[in-house]
Amino acid sequence: MTRPWILPMLLVLCGLALAAGLIASGTPGVAAAVLVGFVLLAGAHSTLIFPRSTDALEAQIRSALDGRPVVFWRPGCKYCIRLRIRLGRCAHQMHWVDIWRDPVGAATVRAANGGNETVPTVILAGQPHTNPDPAWLREYLSRSTRPGRSRG
Question: Which residues cross the membrane (predicted)?
Fold first, then answer.
């Protein structure tokens, strides 16, 4: 369970070490700015910016019931971060599965991507989409949530 936090912890520790060196050299303002930058970078690479993860089986059951897509992701993936940020509030309309925490999710991604754990992989209406364009996915979500429209 600590694996998703290794990169953020390393970023914070590196920021602290760099800030300490800058303070020792007499530039505390720059040190503070560098530390804030590393903390923000660590936050972006943590699980904190993503909606609450569920396991793959639960996500697939929920998706079958409500028609919402399932997103398989992992912390530290720049493409997952890009997708999450560009989706904005729409991200909460999907079921998120952290493949580092769920072996079934990792196996699902490998099955969809020829043995590779390529994320983000989005399962939409039973079809896998690897690293989809966030604008396309946002448009799909907006169409599927309009009144009078059916999902799919």
Answer: 29-50
Please tell me which residue, 148 or 24, carries the higher pLDDT value.
24
pLDDT in tens, 22-54: 999 999 999 999 999 999 888 877 777 777 889
> Domain coordinates of the chain in residue numbers?
3-48, 51-144
Residue with tokens 């953020």: 8
Strand order from edge to edge, sheet including 95-98: 95-98, 70-73, 121-124, 127-130
Q: Kindly give the interhelix angle for 3-24 and 28-44, rounded to the nearest 10 degrees.
A: 170
Distance CA 83, CA 73 (A): 10
Sole residue written with tokens 């997103």? 71
pTM for the whole structure: 0.71
Going by C-alpha positions, the residue among 48, 46, 73 that lies closest to residue 59 is 73
Residue 25 region, left (φ>0) first, then alpha (ψ -120 to 50), else beta? alpha
| pLDDT tens, position by position, 128-146 | 999 999 999 999 888 876 5
Alpha-carbon gap, residue 54 to 62, rounded angstroms: 10
**CATH topology (fold) of 51-144:** Glutaredoxin (3.40.30)
